[in-house]
From TrEMBL:
Organism whose genome encodes this protein: Lactuca virosa
Protein name, UniProt field: Tetratricopeptide repeat protein 1
Domain of life (superkingdom): Eukaryota
Ranges of the TPR repeats in the UniProt entry: 158-191, 192-225
Compositional bias segments (type: Polar residues): 15-43
Amino acid sequence: MVAIEPLPSTDIESKPSNSTTTGVDSNSSNRLNVDGVVSSSGDKATAAGYASDGYETASETEVGDDDTVSDNSDKSYAVEHEHQQQKSEEMSTVSKDPTYEDALNDDEFKQKLLAQMNEAKVEGNKLFGERLYEEALLKYDYAIQLAPEMSSSSEIRSICHNNRATCFFKLGKYEDTIKECSKALEINPTYMKSLLRRGEVHEKLENYEEAIADMKKILELDPSNYQCKRTIIRLEPLAIQKREKMKEEMLGKLKDMGDSILGKFGMSVDNFKAVKDPNTGSYSISFQR
């Protein structure tokens, strides 16, 4: 009789994964009308990819060596070793590819630019919170100029233009406010805050037609915005009055111009009368002394 001794068992030991998560949390008692700073609604407007600076480490696991290795294990190990070596060679070949390296470097460069833009925007928001509007304008402009044409920076750029508009509004520079809102809307045509701000400033400047146009655009994006509906109803009579006033002023200027010319011949515009034909709707001019 031949006794068969059992093979020793194989134990796999693993250390629990060590993970560290670091987050950035900020609370502000100020409710500021600037994107990236807590707004009047309490929301934060942050650029994509910068909502959190947290990170997490990869878990580490140790695997114990087998006390006994069979022939089959030797073969498996040899195959696995060959596979790993082949994979390592492939990765080495890819890493040496200049195109791959250029793409990697370009992506890293863009990420650094976005990080710098976001940092400048945050600094601008801090200055805005301290009511240092001129200094905040410079920070927002710096963020915009870092990557003026990069598509992935469009969100931060539109936010910074809108924040610049808010600074100009605080400084009473309404024409500059309109310009910055328009720049933000060129990047993001559905930017509600910029539409609201521009419409508000147009009303202050008595540009009622333009203000109504901005309010109607907001209604297209948000049909349930009853405040915009009320604003349109309130502004439409003012727009009509302004049109009539402008028409009268224009006719008065034309009359003055006509009188200055006709006066040389002893006549005036009052000597000419426009008569409307009821059948055709056309006008005929008759001369009266």
